[in-house]
Amino acid sequence: xxxxxxxxxxxxxxxxxxxxxxxxxxxxxxxxxxxxxxxxxxxxxxxxxxxxxxxxxxxxxxxxxxxxxxxxxxxxxxxxxxxxxxxxxxxxxxxxxxxxxxxxxxxxxxxxxxxxxxxxxxxxxxxxxxxxxxxxxxxxxxxxxxxxxxxxxxxxxxxxxxxxxxxxxxxxxxxxxx
Length: 178
Fold this sequence. Notes:
Strand 4 (72-78), helix 3 and strand 5 form a beta-alpha-beta unit. The protein has one domain (1-172): Glutaredoxin (3-Layer(aba) Sandwich). The chain is of the alpha+beta class. The model has no long low-confidence stretch (mean pLDDT 91). The chain contains five helices and nine strands. The chain is globular. It has a seven-stranded mixed sheet with strand order 2-1-5-4-3-8-9. One of its GO terms (biological process) is mitochondrial respiratory chain complex IV assembly. GO terms for molecular function: metal ion binding.
């Protein structure tokens, strides 16, 4: 019942076209066959994004302890392509999980990716130094190996709760028929 309700939301059903930190074009289809934990944020975020990326990284490490579980790919999509080019993402994301892959693109590409997940994004006013913050939805999305949105996790969920939920989805997963 929960999966039917989530599918009715049509979250994450569209494709995205972005670039990773090595400059390779990436689409949602590139991650089919793997579970994905996906977070939208920005590298200049003073507190929320680093906290959420640390939580995501801890959840992935907890799941990696069980070699019987299927592969899980952590992804970070910037909501601030003006400042978050490939080099900025590579530099900032190396402090988290070693397999955390950063994705960026043109403002239009990033807006389209955020829209596919109904992620709210709004850049705030610039200060005297030209700096600004970006207000955005704070959710981590779980996609199954078929690329279907399975769940999302807000700030109140701990890494242990996220890992437990992901494991439950993995345990109950049945692939889509061909």
